[in-house]
Design goal:
Blueprint: E1 7-12, H1 16-26, E2 30-34, E3 39-44, H2 47-59, H3 66-81, H4 88-100
Antiparallel strand pairs: 1-3, 2-3
Amino acid sequence: MQVKLKFFITQHIRDEALLKSFINYLGCGKYYCHDSNDVGSYVVTKGLEIEKIIMFLEKYPIHGVKTLDLADFYKARQLMKTNDHLTIEGLKKIQAIKREMNRKRIS
């Protein structure tokens, strides 16, 4: 099993220009359109690009409930940095973190 960090922002397709502006402003990521449900996503998956996003978010912190998701993202990243994701226990920790993120979070 492979573990990979993925940062994404999803919005209605009417906000396509906004999502694409992240690519230009941050110098990384890609835009994907999901026509079937009228949404688009700004997606970053490459390691060095993820670090760019993290540096940006450390300089300009987000607020609200997404702060909890970002904290979980950092936990998973830390497990990967220490190679804990290569162990069964570390993999289970990352899976548990993922299960609680985003819309799956229970207040």
